[in-house]
Amino acid sequence: MIDMNSETDNIEYEIEELEEKLQEIKNQEGIIGYILRSTKSASIDLKDPTKIISYALISSTMFDTSQDMIEELKIGEVNSIVLESDETKILSMNINDKRLTIFMEKHVNHDKLYKKLK
To answer: 4-117 adopts what CATH topology?
Structure first.
């Protein structure tokens, strides 16, 4: 028999733990912000809230385009995606059926962030 309360408590604990990690990460030097999306809601924390739509659009486009490429190339599951420009980087990953995108300056070590969140 499955204990639904225990399963719900576990999911809530995982969400709280992820949110605590994201709060620590967002306070690090060079972090611009993040977007955490589930099928029902989104949590957005950006240093420049006037650009929410732009950041949300690039986050969504990265996930959609990567999924299309993965399916087309039949390369299997991808753990994370990193997009770099001259000044910034974007780390996108799936965590517990949620899509997380972290925006950062180029000098930030995205591997450390990934390992902390994984």
So the answer is: Beta-Lactamase (3.30.450)
